[in-house]
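sry for the spam today, last one i promise. struct tokens for design, 336 residues
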């Protein structure tokens, strides 16, 4: 049950028994993410004051420049989870390979793995625009008691036990699901407590916002170009409004509240698009479906895709149900 103004801590305790697998372990894990979120929030908030803006001088495995805050957020989430010994493994957008978490007695009794995009929208940090963190939680598939393996991470999104994001915006929020709807909690920074502010979040079935990097229009597949022209056409409730922040978390958050579609298609310069299936698309797809929306690669629901590699990319269309179905229609028609 959700009660307005309940704290996240109270909510986690009260709802522990309604989790699909209730042993208290998942609650502890979400508590650890809550703590790490507060620490990262503190760092992000003072970004303009201390020397943490700009590039860290390293390039991650995907060839992208790492920002100092990318590295900092990555370390905070990993160390918070490692120190609590509540997961058996972590995969991060910022790490080349997955990390095995050894428990102090070395018997690997933890059953969850976490996959994380520690700082999403990091190119927005230097200009004081909202960024986020995205997380995804699975039960391991290899036997408890042995070190975690790659197949524990390469599971279809359907297997997710929980997923969510933190948006460090005009206010900081945690929005997450454990498969029983989506709830949003807003941080009161004065006392460092998250309060339930957005119970049972729902995508409007229809929306009037489309979010896409239109600078890449020329490189998009024909079906996506046709859909963009459809959004811009004067007919019925169109033209729609274009809104693109460039932080998936923030664009998704706005669209879930107001109704809209987010698109990162494949293109002639990025064969599989840009977004990462495991750290970005699967968790956002789980939230979208739990909120009555949809997420697709144009042909297949995102969560039905079986991943083959950790840093796999995938074309992504996500948002209000009718809008996602419409873009699928255009893509599939142009593909015939
Ligand atoms: P990240 O900062 O984790 O690398 O992710 C950035 C992603 C996503 O958040 C955003 O919507 C998209 O990249 C923006 O890409 P473009 O600049 O190509 O539009
Ligand atoms: Mn990202
Ligand atoms: Mn990132």
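last one done:
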């Amino acid at each position: 049950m959700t009660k307005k103004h309940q704290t996240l801590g109270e909510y986690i305790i009260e709802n522990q028994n309604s989790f699909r697998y209730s042993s208290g372990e998942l609650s502890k894990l979400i508590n650890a993410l809550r703590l790490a979120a507060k620490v990262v929030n503190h760092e992000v908030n003072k970004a303009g004051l201390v020397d943490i803006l700009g590039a860290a001088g390293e390039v991650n495995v995907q060839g992208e420049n790492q920002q100092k805050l990318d590295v900092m957020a990555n370390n905070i989430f990993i160390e918070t989870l490692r120190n609590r010994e509540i997961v058996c493994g972590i995969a991060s957008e910022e790490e080349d390979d997955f990390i095995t978490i050894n428990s102090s007695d070395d018997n690997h009794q933890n059953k969850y793995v976490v996959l994380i995009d520690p700082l999403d929208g990091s190119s927005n940090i230097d200009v004081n625009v909202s960024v986020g963190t995205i997380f995804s939680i699975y039960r391991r598939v290899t036997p408890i008691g042995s070190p975690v393996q790659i197949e524990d991470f390469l599971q279809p999104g359907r297997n997710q036990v929980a997923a969510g994001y933190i948006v460090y915006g005009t206010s900081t929020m945690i929005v997450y699901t454990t498969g029983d709807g989506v709830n949003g909690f807003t941080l009161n920074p004065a006392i460092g407590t998250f309060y339930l502010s957005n119970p049972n979040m729902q995508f409007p079935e229809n929306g009037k916002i489309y979010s896409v990097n239109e600078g890449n229009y020329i490189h998009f597949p024909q079906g996506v170009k046709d859909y963009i022209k459809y959004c811009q056409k004067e007919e019925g409730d169109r033209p729609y409004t274009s809104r693109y922040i460039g932080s998936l978390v923030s664009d998704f958050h706005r669209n879930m509240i107001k109704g809209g579609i987010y698109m990162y298609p494949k293109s002639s310069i990025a064969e599989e698009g840009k977004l990462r299936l495991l750290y970005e698309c699967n968790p956002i797809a789980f939230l979208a479906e739990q909120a009555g929306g949809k997420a697709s690669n144009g042909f297949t629901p995102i969560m039905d895709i079986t991943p083959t590699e950790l840093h796999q990319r995938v074309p992504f269309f996500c948002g209000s149900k009718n809008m996602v179905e419409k873009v699928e229609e255009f893509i599939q028609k142009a593909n015939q």
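Residues 211 and 244 are 5 Å apart (CA to CA). ok im logging off now
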